């Protein structure tokens, strides 16, 4: 015979509620009606009022030898899982609030403060994840702001020493993928205490008098390894790890560009779009961004120094035109990037009028240096031609004869004397084009 299930605190609250209502002359047919009437009162009841019934439920479970906590198949308490989820949600909410406060504080009177505020971003490369720790092989911290662009960087190649037992193959694969040197247990490992001291000094260089370190921003998938690397350094130096704050870069990007925008079509309507823009990595294959080691082995894309610069360039490339900041090669975009395309699009955005046929003026997208020059030239030519359209002059037979174009067919395939109609007439396969067609001022002509 199955055991009778134990009752929770709400059940005993309903019994008490039923008795109180009976004394008032109100009777219920069944427990369903009581639950419907008592449910809202139970949800709004303060913890002190609930404690009485929770204690009754606890004693009932003890009598029935029912464990107070429920566990998963792996032995993890469900209550602990719920608590961890709650703490994670609270942490994420606090992070978003902190970023929003940073943006609001620096743009309180005007956007000038936000344009000049220094931002620190960090990236790490790790050989593998050994248990709960990441075996870090390289790190980079970068400082930039919207006015000055990239100001300076602090890269470090790290030798963690020996390889954890059982992870040799993972470490080897990590070296091949990321262009790292194999950890050398015969040489002295990197001094984590010195790296931590350099990191703190680097974060405080904007203002040595501050007692709170500025936050470090990174991509969402790099938050865990960056946090763990900081924890490793603090553990070896007996430093308080709560000095550091690691936030998501896409959240900052979203709030910052929306704070400085002046037009409704600028910025991002959702944080996910800011993350998508960062993941596009438009400056991925620009040369000269990586360290010497990764440049020599042709692994520049995997370098943390290159990755930090590309993240910063992506944010600057989107925010500077919106904030009215002139972009300087080498600071806001790579040194060898084509500035003519950016300036051309920026000028078009400033003076271009809306279409006169499609109705109301359609806004141009925000200036983005990743747009191709061909698009810019096409847009400019359309604007210039549409502004100067005039009726075409009528041509007579004498005009055609005098120009030498009589009885001529253009090779585009139009007309009875064209090359296409001749091939079709004789049912002979047409020869394939060996080179792509290119636009030119005059067409190739065939005389019949």
Beta strand count: 7
The helix fraction, in percent, is 40-55%
Radius of gyration: 34 Å
Alpha-carbon distance between the two ends: 103 Å
Overview features:
two-stranded antiparallel sheet; Nucleotidyltransferase, domain 5; alpha/beta; 10% strand; 16 helices; five-stranded mixed beta sheet; 448 residues
Give a quick rundown of the structure.
The chain has 448 residues and is an alpha/beta fold.
Give an overview of the whole structure:
The structure is a single chain. The strands form two sheets. This protein has a five-stranded mixed beta sheet with strand order 3-2-1-4-5, sandwiched between helices. It starts with 8 loop residues before the first helix and ends with a strand. It is extended and about 85 Å long. With 448 residues, the protein is an alpha/beta fold. 46% of the residues lie in helices and 10% in strands. The protein has three domains: 55 residues; 227 residues, Ribonuclease H-like superfamily/Ribonuclease H (Nucleotidyltransferase, domain 5), CATH 3.30.420; 42 residues, no CATH class.
